[in-house]
Amino acid sequence: RRVLTNGHVIKDATDIRLRKHGNSKRWRARVICEGPDVDLAVLEVLGDDDNEIEAFWEGVEPIQWAAGLPLLQSSVNVVGYPTGGRTIC
Fold this sequence. Notes:
Blueprint: E1 3-6, H1 7-10, E2 16-19, E3 26-35, E4 40-45, H2 50-57
């Protein structure tokens, strides 16, 4: 299991911490791979033991990828912070 994020979020980062919405705990993470040309990065959650890592994934539903690209003018869902802040839109 991995976390997909924007590449600019982790660019030049020396200490990456992940926080789940509604939870103040922060989990350490490391970059597995980065694609600057598409502004994406894949992160791995780190912990002192498997229980700590599993605690991060508790209640998290994996994203369901489409089998193909959407047609032009199709409705799609986008999750993020288009205006900054701390609330997912």
